[in-house]
Write a structure and sequence with these properties.
InterPro entries: WAT1-related. There is one protein chain. The protein is an all-alpha fold. It has helices at about 1-35, 40-70, 75-95, 130-155, 160-180. The protein has a domain at about 50-95 and about 130-170. The longest helix is centred in the N-terminal third of the chain and has 35 residues, at about 1-35. It starts with a helix and ends with a helix.
Length: about 180
Protein backbone atom coordinates (compact mmCIF):
# COMPACT_ATOMS: atom_id res chain seq x y z
CA UNK A 1 0.00 0.00 0.00
CA UNK A 2 2.94 2.31 0.67
CA UNK A 3 4.25 1.95 -2.89
CA UNK A 4 0.88 2.93 -4.34
CA UNK A 5 0.65 5.98 -2.08
CA UNK A 6 4.20 7.03 -3.02
CA UNK A 7 3.43 6.56 -6.72
CA UNK A 8 0.25 8.65 -6.45
CA UNK A 9 2.13 11.29 -4.47
CA UNK A 10 4.78 11.40 -7.20
CA UNK A 11 2.09 11.80 -9.86
CA UNK A 12 0.41 14.79 -8.18
CA UNK A 13 2.29 17.43 -10.22
CA UNK A 14 1.45 15.67 -13.48
CA UNK A 15 -2.20 15.28 -12.47
CA UNK A 16 -2.41 18.96 -11.57
CA UNK A 17 -0.89 19.88 -14.93
CA UNK A 18 -3.62 17.83 -16.65
CA UNK A 19 -6.30 19.60 -14.58
CA UNK A 20 -4.83 23.01 -15.46
CA UNK A 21 -4.68 22.13 -19.17
CA UNK A 22 -8.29 20.86 -19.12
CA UNK A 23 -9.39 24.09 -17.45
CA UNK A 24 -7.53 26.14 -20.05
CA UNK A 25 -9.20 24.12 -22.82
CA UNK A 26 -12.59 24.89 -21.27
CA UNK A 27 -11.63 28.56 -21.19
CA UNK A 28 -10.80 28.39 -24.88
CA UNK A 29 -14.24 26.97 -25.65
CA UNK A 30 -15.93 29.77 -23.70
CA UNK A 31 -13.74 32.36 -25.45
CA UNK A 32 -14.81 30.95 -28.80
CA UNK A 33 -18.48 31.08 -27.80
CA UNK A 34 -18.14 34.66 -26.55
CA UNK A 35 -16.32 35.80 -29.68
CA UNK A 36 -18.86 34.10 -31.93
CA UNK A 37 -21.67 36.16 -30.42
CA UNK A 38 -19.71 39.34 -31.04
CA UNK A 39 -17.72 40.11 -27.89
CA UNK A 40 -14.30 41.66 -28.30
CA UNK A 41 -11.57 39.24 -27.24
CA UNK A 42 -9.43 42.00 -25.74
CA UNK A 43 -12.34 43.06 -23.53
CA UNK A 44 -13.07 39.43 -22.63
CA UNK A 45 -9.46 38.87 -21.59
CA UNK A 46 -9.47 42.10 -19.58
CA UNK A 47 -12.62 40.89 -17.78
CA UNK A 48 -10.94 37.58 -17.07
CA UNK A 49 -7.91 39.18 -15.45
CA UNK A 50 -10.02 41.68 -13.50
CA UNK A 51 -12.14 38.84 -12.11
CA UNK A 52 -8.98 36.84 -11.34
CA UNK A 53 -7.45 39.74 -9.44
CA UNK A 54 -10.70 40.60 -7.64
CA UNK A 55 -10.92 37.00 -6.44
CA UNK A 56 -7.27 36.42 -5.55
CA UNK A 57 -6.47 39.69 -3.74
CA UNK A 58 -9.07 39.27 -0.94
CA UNK A 59 -8.14 35.59 -0.68
CA UNK A 60 -4.47 36.53 -0.27
CA UNK A 61 -5.27 39.12 2.36
CA UNK A 62 -7.31 36.54 4.25
CA UNK A 63 -4.71 33.76 3.98
CA UNK A 64 -1.75 35.90 4.98
CA UNK A 65 -3.73 37.35 7.88
CA UNK A 66 -4.65 33.82 8.98
CA UNK A 67 -1.00 32.83 8.95
CA UNK A 68 -0.29 35.71 11.33
CA UNK A 69 -3.21 34.79 13.61
CA UNK A 70 -1.60 31.57 14.73
CA UNK A 71 -4.34 29.11 13.84
CA UNK A 72 -2.54 26.40 15.77
CA UNK A 73 -3.53 28.05 19.05
CA UNK A 74 -6.97 28.15 20.61
CA UNK A 75 -6.97 31.97 20.62
CA UNK A 76 -6.32 32.09 16.88
CA UNK A 77 -9.14 29.62 16.20
CA UNK A 78 -11.52 31.67 18.38
CA UNK A 79 -10.65 34.85 16.47
CA UNK A 80 -11.39 33.20 13.13
CA UNK A 81 -14.62 31.59 14.40
CA UNK A 82 -15.84 34.90 15.80
CA UNK A 83 -15.03 36.73 12.58
CA UNK A 84 -16.84 34.12 10.47
CA UNK A 85 -19.88 34.25 12.75
CA UNK A 86 -20.03 38.06 12.50
CA UNK A 87 -19.67 38.03 8.73
CA UNK A 88 -22.23 35.23 8.42
CA UNK A 89 -24.72 37.11 10.59
CA UNK A 90 -24.27 40.32 8.64
CA UNK A 91 -24.77 38.45 5.36
CA UNK A 92 -27.89 36.75 6.71
CA UNK A 93 -29.41 40.10 7.69
CA UNK A 94 -28.43 41.67 4.40
CA UNK A 95 -29.73 38.92 2.11
CA UNK A 96 -32.75 37.63 4.09
CA UNK A 97 -35.27 40.23 2.87
CA UNK A 98 -34.00 42.00 -0.15
CA UNK A 99 -35.06 43.01 -3.57
CA UNK A 100 -34.90 40.42 -6.31
CA UNK A 101 -31.63 40.61 -8.21
CA UNK A 102 -31.84 40.16 -11.98
CA UNK A 103 -28.15 40.11 -12.80
CA UNK A 104 -28.22 38.62 -16.27
CA UNK A 105 -30.74 37.50 -18.83
CA UNK A 106 -31.38 33.82 -19.42
CA UNK A 107 -32.12 34.05 -23.12
CA UNK A 108 -28.60 33.36 -24.34
CA UNK A 109 -28.49 31.69 -27.76
CA UNK A 110 -25.17 29.87 -28.19
CA UNK A 111 -24.27 29.56 -31.87
CA UNK A 112 -27.80 29.05 -33.22
CA UNK A 113 -27.90 32.47 -34.94
CA UNK A 114 -31.56 32.83 -35.88
CA UNK A 115 -31.12 36.40 -37.02
CA UNK A 116 -28.85 38.91 -35.39
CA UNK A 117 -25.07 39.03 -35.44
CA UNK A 118 -23.31 36.25 -37.34
CA UNK A 119 -19.56 35.78 -37.45
CA UNK A 120 -18.34 34.71 -40.87
CA UNK A 121 -15.41 32.33 -41.04
CA UNK A 122 -12.96 32.30 -43.91
CA UNK A 123 -12.39 28.73 -45.17
CA UNK A 124 -8.61 28.99 -45.64
CA UNK A 125 -6.71 31.99 -44.56
CA UNK A 126 -3.12 32.75 -45.51
CA UNK A 127 -2.26 33.26 -41.84
CA UNK A 128 -2.33 29.57 -40.89
CA UNK A 129 1.45 29.42 -40.41
CA UNK A 130 1.47 32.62 -38.36
CA UNK A 131 -1.39 31.27 -36.23
CA UNK A 132 0.43 27.98 -35.62
CA UNK A 133 3.62 29.83 -34.66
CA UNK A 134 1.66 32.06 -32.28
CA UNK A 135 0.09 29.00 -30.62
CA UNK A 136 3.55 27.45 -30.13
CA UNK A 137 4.87 30.78 -28.80
CA UNK A 138 1.90 30.99 -26.38
CA UNK A 139 2.61 27.49 -25.03
CA UNK A 140 6.35 28.11 -24.66
CA UNK A 141 5.92 31.52 -23.02
CA UNK A 142 3.28 30.09 -20.66
CA UNK A 143 5.65 27.31 -19.63
CA UNK A 144 8.50 29.78 -19.10
CA UNK A 145 6.17 31.94 -17.02
CA UNK A 146 5.27 28.99 -14.79
CA UNK A 147 8.95 28.12 -14.35
CA UNK A 148 9.75 31.74 -13.45
CA UNK A 149 6.89 31.79 -10.91
CA UNK A 150 8.18 28.57 -9.34
CA UNK A 151 11.69 30.05 -9.00
CA UNK A 152 10.27 33.29 -7.57
CA UNK A 153 8.17 31.42 -5.02
CA UNK A 154 11.30 29.69 -3.71
CA UNK A 155 13.03 33.02 -3.02
CA UNK A 156 10.20 35.42 -2.19
CA UNK A 157 8.87 35.06 1.38
CA UNK A 158 5.25 36.13 0.69
CA UNK A 159 4.07 33.64 -1.92
CA UNK A 160 0.44 34.70 -2.01
CA UNK A 161 1.25 38.41 -2.21
CA UNK A 162 3.48 37.89 -5.22
CA UNK A 163 0.72 36.04 -7.09
CA UNK A 164 -1.81 38.74 -6.18
CA UNK A 165 0.60 41.42 -7.42
CA UNK A 166 1.13 39.55 -10.70
CA UNK A 167 -2.63 39.17 -11.22
CA UNK A 168 -3.31 42.83 -10.40
CA UNK A 169 -0.62 44.08 -12.78
CA UNK A 170 -1.89 41.71 -15.49
CA UNK A 171 -5.42 43.07 -15.05
CA UNK A 172 -4.17 46.65 -15.37
CA UNK A 173 -2.21 45.79 -18.52
CA UNK A 174 -5.17 43.93 -20.05
CA UNK A 175 -7.50 46.87 -19.38
CA UNK A 176 -5.00 49.23 -20.98
CA UNK A 177 -4.67 46.96 -24.01
CA UNK A 178 -8.44 46.56 -24.37
CA UNK A 179 -9.00 50.30 -24.16
CA UNK A 180 -6.29 51.01 -26.70
CA UNK A 181 -7.57 48.46 -29.24
CA UNK A 182 -11.29 49.27 -29.11
CA UNK A 183 -12.60 51.06 -32.15
CA UNK A 184 -15.60 53.33 -31.75
Amino acid sequence: MGKIANTIHGLKPAMMMVVVQATMAGNSVFYKLASSIGMSLSVLIAYRFVFDASFIVPLVLLLERMERLGLGTMIGKAKVAGTLMCIGGAMLLMFYKGAELNICSTNVDFLHHKGGHVVTLHPHDSNDVVGALLVVFCCVSGAIGLIAKAKMIQDYPCVYSSIALIMTMTAIQAIGFALSTLHG
